[in-house]
Design a protein that fits this description.
The protein is built from five helices and seven strands, in the order H-E-H-E-E-H-E-H-E-H-E-E. The strands form two sheets. A four-stranded antiparallel sheet has the order 1-5-7-6. The chain has a three-stranded mixed sheet with strand order 2-3-4, sandwiched between helices.
C-alpha cells in the first residue's frame, strides 16, 4: 500500500486537468430495500465463489451512504482475493456488480471489501491527501499523485477538501487517471 505515498510526483508543468471525480454521478441514493436486495444477491454470489475456491470467510452485508456494502472477513486465504494494490479486489467487485445487474436488470454501485483492505487503504489515502495538501499549501506548487482507481481518487479528493487554500482535480484517462492537488487562485 505504501507505493502510492512513495511515488508522489511534484510537477510544475501546466498540463490540463480533468473533471472533478464526482462529475457525472447521479444525485440521490437508491431505496434501502433495493440496496438490501443487491447486498443479498452479491452475498449469495460471493458465497458460491468462496465455496468454489474452498476459502473460508464470513460475509457481512450493510447499506451505507446510498450503496450496498459487502465485506468478507475471517479467512486465511482472503489476501489472495485482494491482490497487489487491490487489483483482484477491484475485479471481483466488478464481477459481483455484474452478477447483481444480471439478477436485477440495473447497474449496481455496491462496494466490496475483503479482509479489511479497503478500510485500511481508505485511511492511508486520507493521510496522503491531507499531508500532500499541506505540502502544496506551504510550497505553492502543484503535486500530481500516481494513477489511482476511482475509489482511491475519491478518498483523496475528500481528504484534500478538508484543507483550506488547496483544491484537487483528476486528470488523464483510466487506468492512468490521477489526482492533481494545487493551490487555490
Amino acid at each position: 500500500m505504501s507505493e502510492t505515498i512513495d511515488t508522489i510526483d511534484a510537477d510544475k508543468d501546466d498540463a490540463a486537468t480533468g473533471e472533478p471525480e464526482n462529475a457525472g454521478q447521479q444525485p440521490g441514493g437508491a431505496d434501502d430495500d433495493v440496496l438490501v436486495r443487491e447486498g443479498d444477491i452479491a452475498g449469495d454470489y460471493l458465497e458460491r465463489l468462496l465455496d468454489l475456491l474452498d476459502y473460508d470467510g464470513d460475509i457481512d452485508l450493510d447499506v451505507e451512504a446510498g450503496r450496498a456494502i459487502v465485506s468478507i472477513d475471517g479467512g486465511e486465504d482472503l489476501e489472495k482475493l485482494v491482490g497487489p494494490r487491490g487489483t483482484v479486489l477491484e475485479a471481483l467487485q466488478e464481477l459481483t456488480r455484474l452478477a447483481v445487474q444480471q439478477e436485477t436488470g440495473s447497474r449496481s454501485r455496491l462496494m466490496l471489501d475483503i479482509a479489511g483492505w479497503r478500510a485500511d487503504r481508505r485511511e492511508e489515502l486520507r493521510e496522503l491527501g491531507r499531508s500532500t495538501a499541506e505540502t502544496v499549501l506551504s510550497s505553492g506548487e502543484r503535486v500530481r499523485l500516481q494513477p489511482m482507481s476511482p475509489f482511491e481518487r475519491k478518498v483523496v479528493h475528500d481528504a484534500v477538501a478538508t484543507v483550506s487554500g488547496v483544491t484537487s482535480e483528476s486528470e488523464g484517462e483510466d487506468p492512468k487517471r490521477r489526482v492533481v492537488i494545487f493551490p487555490e487562485s
